[in-house]
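ok trying again, last paste got cut off:
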Amino acid sequence: MSAHVWQGPGTHDKRSPCPALNALANYGYLKIISIKPLYFLLDLVAEKISQRVNLQECEHDASLTRKDFYFGDNHTVNPELVDLLLKQNIDGKIKEESLSKLHWIRLNNSKEVNPTLLYNFQQKFLSAGESSLLLNFIGANTNLEIEIEKLEVFLKHERFPEGWRKPNKVVGIWPIINSLCLFLKRYDQLEKEQKK
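nice, full thing came through this time. structure:
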């Protein structure tokens, strides 16, 4: 990452609701030119993170770091939601359990206050996917755990934290899918526990 210098978005730059893609854009690895549904991963693979990424709404209600669409700006990071996530830490680290717990807190809060909540399997899948990607990339070299100080820098400022390195080995699709499935299973467990 040292070849690229961080520079926040200019007045005409577009940013996505995804902190990872925004961080890559802030370092000049990507230029976000438009927004399209979930095809951003395919664009990343197809263009091998060259220069352009087409994105669309990949944000969803009950997000870890963004407000629900009903409340207005669902693209800009909400520092209060990041702080809520960081409070779910276990021994100063965010892990699968922390992210699952926050997802459940956010979903229940959205059910209470958002009369237009859109939450079905697609949003559940997106939520599990964002958590899986976060742990598998930002936490790749630290046993799928992220120190809260580093995560705060990444999520609030869309910067790679001091001392962070890209994964030591290629992060393949199967670890991401496996992790995503573990999140979905944990979400189901939390739902069953709440119904008791």
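cool. The two ends are 48 Å apart (CA to CA). Helices lie at 19-26, 40-47, 79-86, 96-113, 121-138, 148-157, 173-195.
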